[in-house]
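Translate structure to sequence.
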């Protein structure tokens, strides 16, 4: 039996196989097209997110010390575009009240109207000894930063700032007369409390 005879006898089977192959190829084309569109959409979305990240202000705040004697509060815009209407909320976490000079800083009381990319502001907080409690622990703070970009898009950041990261390092710094004076003030305050309690009895 030659091919022509076989083909004539099995034409219906050949036709079915042709239809099946056509359906499979069509399904494969549709699958590839959909996945290609999905990949393109994901790529576009990722590129858009990267573009937004590269074109937004990024305001960070942190404590820093150069000589392990004094603490400073830094506010910086590490983003690529300006930030405006910056408002800062700084709340003690492990103490009810923490008295520092930062409370009087304009950036805390009134906020910052405008901060350019790469620009930073610095304010004196307090000396390490003054911040240390009777157990030689330092305060930690909750900080919340709210600001807008030049298109009035709003941003909010919140996290914890813990000065105890300097614990152990401060004690290794040589003390000077000012440090001794501050320690004497603490002792005097403690003696005053004992005296007051004795008088009440």
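Result:
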């Amino acid at each position: 039996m030659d091919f022509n005879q076989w083909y004539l006898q099995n034409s219906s089977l050949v036709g079915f196989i042709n239809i099946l192959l056509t359906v499979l190829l069509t399904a494969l084309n549709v699958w590839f097209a959909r996945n290609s569109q999905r990949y393109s959409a994901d790529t576009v979305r990722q590129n858009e997110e990267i573009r937004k990240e590269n074109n937004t202000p990024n305001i960070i705040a942190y404590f820093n010390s150069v000589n392990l004697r004094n603490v400073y509060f830094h506010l910086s815009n590490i983003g690529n575009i300006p930030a405006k209407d910056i408002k800062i909320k700084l709340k003690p976490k492990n103490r009810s009240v923490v008295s520092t000079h930062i409370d009087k800083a304009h950036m805390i009381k009134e906020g910052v109207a405008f901060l350019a990319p790469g620009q930073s502001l610095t304010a004196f907080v307090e000396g390490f000894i003054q911040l240390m409690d009777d157990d030689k622990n330092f305060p930690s703070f909750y900080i919340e930063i709210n600001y807008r970009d030049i298109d009035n898009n709003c941003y909010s950041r919140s996290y914890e700032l813990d000065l105890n990261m300097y614990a152990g390092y401060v004690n290794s710094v040589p003390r000077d007369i000012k440090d001794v004076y501050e320690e004497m003030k603490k002792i005097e305050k403690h003696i005053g409390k004992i005296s007051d309690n004795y008088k009440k009895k």
